[in-house]
Amino acid sequence: xxxxPHPAEQGPCVVELKEAGPEAAELLSILHHAAFEGxxxxxxxxxxxILGMPGVVVWLACVSQSEEAVPVGFIVSRHVVDExxxxxVGVHPQWQRRGIARVLLAHLVGRASQIGETLFLEVRFxxxxxxxxxxxxxxxQVAVRPRYYEDGEDARLLKWSPx
Length: 163
Ligand SMILES: CC(C)(COP(=O)(O)OP(=O)(O)OC[C@H]1O[C@@H](n2cnc3c(N)ncnc32)[C@H](O)[C@@H]1OP(=O)(O)O)[C@@H](O)C(=O)NCCC(=O)NCCS
Prior knowledge:
By secondary structure, the chain is of the alpha+beta class. It has helices spanning 25-35, 44-51, 100-115, 128-137, and strands spanning 15-20, 56-65, 68-80, 83-91, 118-124, 140-145, 155-160. The chain has a single domain, classed as Aminopeptidase. A seven-stranded mixed beta sheet has the order 1-2-3-4-5-7-6. A hairpin with a 2-residue loop joins strand 3 (68-80) and strand 4. The longest helix is centred in the middle third of the chain and has 16 residues, at 100-115. Bound molecules: coenzyme A (COA). The site of coenzyme A has 20 residues, from strand 4, helix 3 and helix 4.
């Protein structure tokens, strides 16, 4: 990860989104590890498998650094007919609280809005930062999945709909 420290106080930054394919598996595993601080690790092999699944789409959020676009965040989703599921979203800790996840989500929601797609995702009850991000973007809770995570924590099932 070549991103240099950028404290959150620096405010919003310019984000460029790039679609990625299976070649990004290694990079995604590094970003995922950094964002989740080693919890819920998805290694490159896991990302390789996920990226090979039909309907899976990955967007990388890149920021400009020394005239280079450096990837610092990602969103992975899977789309089948008129439904999409957000599988993972993360931003490198050095770049959090600068509006990057909001840009990634807004991109998916914008596309879903255009094609009439409903989006779903699961989030830990304890993950207030992510819940706040999703609710700001227009997601709302439709169900609870008891003991959804390996450690026994429940998940909130959130939905976004264009209708
Ligand atoms: C959740 C995460 C993706 C947010 O990324 P981010 O780029 O920092 O988020 P943004 O700067 O776009 O913030 C958008 C909104 O999310 C909420 N938010 C983000 N981080 C937050 C935090 N640490 N505490 C409280 N709210 C937070 C706020 O409502 C924020 O809006 P505001 O800055 O106007 O208050 C990031 O913290 C992360 O990678 N976390 C670890 C991985 C993870 O939990 N992924 C989600 C799994 S479901």
